[in-house]
Structures are given as C-alpha cells and as structure tokens.
Amino acid sequence: MIDPSNLLHAPLYFKEDEDPNDNQATMEVFEINQSWRRIPQEQQQKFQSEGYSVVKDSRLEVQISWWTMTGLGTEGREWSLEERFEQISKAGFDGINGFLPAPEEAAQWRELLKQYHLSFSVNAYPTSISDMAQFLERVQTYGDVQFVNAQVLTPFLIDGPAEQLIRGITKLSWETGIPIFIETHRGTFTQDLLRTVAYVEHVEDLQLTIDFSHYVVAGEMHTITDEAERLLQKLLTRTSCIHARVSNGEQIQVDIGDAGQHPIFEHYKRWWHSGMRNWMKSASRDAIFPFVCELGPPSYAITMNEFDGRHQEISDRWKQSLLFAKVARELWQQL
C-alpha cells in the first residue's frame, strides 16, 4: 500500500464506469489530498491494467502574447513567423495568446502550433452581442482555440445595459462551449474599477481576465490604499486568466528590474497569487489556468526617442517576459 504522505500532486485514477468527480469512488485507490507526491510509474501501470484511467490535475499554463513578439529578433533582424514559434517553445512557454489567423494563414498556424506543441488563445474586440457571436463563428471555423479574451469596446456603457451585454456574452460562451474571459482594460466597459466591482456583484457568471496595470495607472496608485485593495480583491474572486504587465501608477508598462526588484511588483505578485488561489477553489481537476505574459511594443513600451520614431525601448521585453513566466510558476507552486 502506498503511503499517502509520500505523494504530491498525484494524478487521480478512476474506473471507466465511475464518475471522476465522485470522491467515494476514488477512495479504493487512494485518499484525495493535494499534498501527495506523484505515484510511481509501476503503480500507475498497475492501476491502468486494472481498468482505471487518469484524470490530470488542474495546472498552470504560461502563454506569451503574440503582440509582445512584435519587432523582437537578434542582431538587428526581426524573427520570422516560424522563428517566433521556435523561440517561444525553446523558452518554455506553453502557448500563444494572439489573434485569429486570416483564412489564408490558418493552415500554417495550425501546423506550427502542432509542431511546437503550443496551445492557442485569441483576443476579441466586440461592441455588441452580435459582434461576439460573429467572432465565435470564426473561432469555430478555425478550431483548436483554448479560450477567448474579450476587450469589450463600449467604454461609456454602464449599469444595466452593460450588465445585459455581459450576460449575453456569457450565454454565447455556454452555447458554443468556448470560454470567454472579459478583460479589465482601459477604453472598455471595465475601465472603471467601481463599475467593474458592480458587475461582479450583479452578474454571477462573469469571468475576468485580470490586468490590474490599467487600474493602477488610471488611478495613479503610487501606493495601494486599503480601499483600493478591498475593491481589487473583489475582482480577483472572478479570476479566470491573468495578463502580466506592471504599471507604477504613472506609466502603463514599466521595467521591474532583472530580478523583479521594483517595489510595486510585490503588489502584483500578491494579486496574481490571490487570483490563482481563488480560481483553484472552484476549478475542476483537469482545468487549465492561463497566465499570459503581455508586454506591448512601442509605442506602448517606454522609448528613449519619443520625438523620433519611438523604437528605442528602455526595457528588454523578452527578458521581462521570461521573468514574468518564472514568477508565475513560482507563485503556482506556493498554492
């Protein structure tokens, strides 16, 4: 008999005619406990030979934004399409968050994603339920999209009409089976922190992509007050995805240092960890939590030649993205 104290993040086994969500059915194999070590290979094989199947643990998946890859390369030459895929894979990213390929590019994207073993999520920019429905039709035609991140471009839509739009988008998500996460973002109907808190209080099924850099810069949050923390934590209860970018309250995107030593970064790490922890409370055993490293190129990035072309960045987007990925995995291990 395996000692449960020697197991950590074990895969969960169940027989084909058993419900994997039925804890009682799994008791004959082992007690459910997230502190277990992985079951030895020979024991896994024994379980499988006896008719058991495996249910994978929920897991973190670190993606990089395709937008972030804009202009990146080596020795003054921008990486080609396939070189970007290669670099993303070599760096250890699990997937790409990007844009739905044009029909003439779809086959190439499918092939490269398969070749480099990368998942794929896309961004949408609807202004109405009709917009969202049409976009989801295109997603279904393309296929193999993990989730849709939605920036709803109706910044002056508030209260009941905005909540009705959220419910309509959520209904489309359920009908199509495609997860849709609404991003906290300037220039959208979540641009205001208080307004978005009201959405969370009134719309039970709202799932958010958390990007607090927008609230920090919009509110000039040089320091995080108790009131701001309380409101932000309320949004974190609906975390379904995280977009990693750090604002200092003055600029939307700042360099956090080679080791993440910028003092405001401690707040972001706390928020990211809290979002992960909240997500974990209701996640199914095989669910995936997406964490997207999203650092914008110029003119989003701070440049040294603001007056002349805006292409000389003061930060290294690639290195900062790798640091965000490392921190995300460290935070996940602390859950």
UniProtKB/TrEMBL annotation:
Annotated keywords: Isomerase
InterPro entries: Xyl_isomerase-like_sf (IPR036237), Xyl_isomerase-like_TIM-brl (IPR013022)
Every Xylose isomerase-like TIM barrel domain range: 85-230
Gene Ontology MF annotations: isomerase activity
Xref: Gene3D superfamilies: Divalent-metal-dependent TIM barrel enzymes
Entry's transmembrane regions: none
Top-rank taxon, per record: Bacteria
Name listed for the protein in its UniProt record: Xylose isomerase
Organism listed in the record: Paenibacillus baekrokdamisoli
